[in-house]
Design a protein that fits this description.
The complex is a heterodimer of chains A (302) and B (297). Chain A is of the alpha+beta class. In chain A, 61% of the residues lie in helices and 12% in strands. Chain B is built from 10 helices and 5 strands; from the N terminus they run H-H-E-E-E-E-E-H-H-H-H-H-H-H-H. The chains are: A alpha+beta (302), B alpha+beta (297).
């Protein structure tokens, strides 16, 4: 028994030492690749605690999260709960914006059964396909992603064999082989839009990364797990013609008393000249996302 | 074939099958790659050493493993032919660039990666893992050796594929410059930069010239004629391209026939002789040296 304990103690002491020494060693020996590997491993571990798309939770769960946190945030959450009923969290794996958009959009189609919207977006998707082709992308590198998204779109509409229930939508959104493909579809669409209108996006991108539009797309848009910024949101919203509302939950406050939660509507730039009738029917975003620095979740209005 | 064995609902399988199709529909002279019939996640490939480098003329074989998450995760590459730039049977890290580790992206493919690998060969390894920094001469020796026989690796089925790929590449890759001019393949290389074509044709000429030199009578003629022949060939070369380019569309691997080769070599010799004779005639008309030659022949 005693021996065993001694061994244990020794073992512990040794492991402490070895950790220390290995820490010293590692500073010298760690290559970029090792650091990246380690970083991504931590990332994966953390991210797997949350499903790609979570369950719908009452907004009070958000409040509970900040119980002992900043009073400004608590105040803002109170303001939010005046207008919003629930939140659906997404995994913080760098794809959260696209994933939130995916679920929110498909859920909207499933619930509204809006066939005109489906037809409209299909036309836009077709245009995105053309854009990628004209940019020189090889068809087979993106067509699977396009096909999978269109499939999901089709099955969100009821009345055909492939129709799915809301539960099934949740299951699919958590299934990597579907969820990641749809996310990648959005990444292709976003990248294509940015490259097509590179003159428009260039100043934004220069401000963000100091690199070229092409580099930005290759390093910050197309690879999975790269976080989204305003540029991504504008491009996706424009390309698909879907307006998006983002509420910002941060610690900013204004002096004029009364806290409010800032929001921004990303309204797709219409390429055609807005005629009187078109201008009058300004779209109210049916996709609402909650932004907290570094992360997007889905919000449900009351 | 493979279509029956795999779950086509699996997105990775779907994608890979499409890449195979595309690879067969648009063959390249610079590389060749195909999956094993028994497992489409396992590929064999061969690349041609990039021109203007010590790898020129070399045929380098390797294997590719595609992950189950393909195309979200990158394929891994491993060379099997000793080359002096990458260790064999060691995974090559294609994102070695230490400052900006490039991310793999699904819009890339096996084709893109092979093109990148070829471009990578002449770069400085900078001590990267799995890299070798052999001297140019050593690499050139390995390049010549690489043509002799494909590497022996894996199951008989894999070996068969490797051998097929080697035959294909031999038919496409011009020989290592400044050596091995005796095993000149008569086949005209397709889809190449004009200068590469010229060098291979001059190599052909050199071979013909060597044979010609065996007959002592025209020894001097040849020596004088050669410098004038070269520009002639350079002018002829581009015009031969349109006809050869039509071959590109053919999906099947061309089998290299030695009988064809001999025929082409003789044809080349015949043509060279004709050119030499024509030039000689011109030369004789134009200069007073004519009489000297007449006396000799």
């Amino acid at each position: 028994m005693q021996n065993q304990e001694n061994l244990d103690a020794d073992g512990k002491a040794e492991s402490v030492i070895s950790i220390q020494t290995s820490e010293y060693d590692s500073w010298g020996n760690l290559g970029d690749d090792d650091i990246m590997l380690q970083k991504s491993a931590i990332f994966v571990q953390e991210a797997e605690k949350v499903p790609f798309v979570g369950d719908k939770e009452p907004l009070s769960s958000l409040e509970a999260e900040y119980k002992s946190g900043s009073p400004i945030l608590l105040e803002k959450i109170k303001v939010l709960s005046g207008q919003y009923a629930a939140i659906r969290r997404t995994r913080g794996d760098g794809n959260c914006f696209f994933r939130s958009f995916m679920f929110s959009y498909l859920e909207h189609i499933l619930e509204s059964q809006d066939k005109t919207e489906v037809d409209r977006i299909k036309t836009n998707v077709e245009n995105c396909r053309k854009t990628l082709r004209s940019l020189g992308y090889t068809e087979f590198t993106f067509e699977d992603f396009f096909a999978l998204f269109l499939e999901q779109l089709e099955s969100a509409l009821q009345g055909n064999e492939s129709s799915i229930s809301h539960e099934e939508l949740v299951i699919r959104s958590r299934d990597q082989s579907i969820s990641d493909y749809v996310v990648m579809f959005f990444r292709f669409v976003t990248s294509g839009e940015i490259q097509k209108r590179s003159e428009f996006f260039e100043p934004f991108i220069m401000g963000l990364t100091n690199g070229t539009v092409d580099q930005f797309c290759k390093t910050a848009v197309e690879p999975m797990g790269e976080e989204s910024d305003h540029v991504h949101i504008i491009a996706l919203s424009d390309a698909l013609g879907v307006p998006i509302r983002v509420l910002y939950l941060d610690r900013s406050s204004c002096d004029s008393g009364g806290l409010s939660v800032n929001h921004h509507d990303f309204v797709p730039a219409t390429t055609e000249v807005a005629s009187g009738s078109a201008a009058s029917e300004i779209k109210i975003p049916f996709i609402t996302l909650l932004y907290r620095p570094g992360h997007y979740d889905i919000l449900y209005p009351k | 074939m493979a279509e029956d064995k795999y779950n086509l609902k699996n997105p990775a399988v779907k994608r890979i099958l499409q890449e195979v199709k595309e690879m067969q529909a648009n063959p390249s002279d610079d590389f060749m790659s195909l999956p094993l019939e028994e497992n489409i996640f396992e590929w064999q490939f061969a690349i041609r050493g990039p021109g203007d480098s010590e790898f020129e003329g070399g045929i380098y074989h390797g294997r590719i493993q595609l992950p189950a998450e393909y195309p979200f995760k990158p394929p891994s590459f491993m060379l099997l032919t000793p080359n002096g730039r990458f260790e064999t049977q060691t995974k090559i890290c294609l994102s070695i660039s230490n400052h900006h580790p490039e991310h793999w992206q699904p819009s890339w493919s096996v084709r893109t990666a092979l093109v990148a690998l070829i471009a990578f060969m002449p770069t400085n390894p900078n001590g990267a893992l799995g890299s070798l920094d052999y001297k140019k001469e050593e690499r050139r020796v390995l390049a010549i050796k690489s043509r002799e026989a494909p590497p022996k690796f894996g199951t008989p089925e894999r070996q068969k594929l490797i051998d097929e790929i080697h035959e294909y590449m031999l038919s496409k890759a011009p020989p290592v410059p400044q050596s091995g001019s005796t095993d000149v393949s008569g086949e005209k290389p397709t889809n190449e930069e004009a200068d590469v074509q010229v060098t291979s044709e001059t190599a052909e000429l050199a071979a013909a010239v060597e044979e010609l030199q065996n007959s002592p009578t025209i020894n001097r003629i040849v020596e004088e004629a050669v410098p004038e022949v070269q520009p002639e060939v350079a002018r002829v070369a581009p015009s031969s391209r349109p006809t050869t380019q039509t071959e590109q569309g053919r999906p099947e691997t061309r089998v290299h026939k030695p009988a064809d080769d001999r025929l082409f070599t003789w044809a080349a010799i015949g043509l060279t002789l004709a050119i030499v004779v024509l030039l000689l005639k011109k030369f004789m008309k134009a200069s007073a040296h004519g009489s000297v030659f007449m006396d000799e022949s």
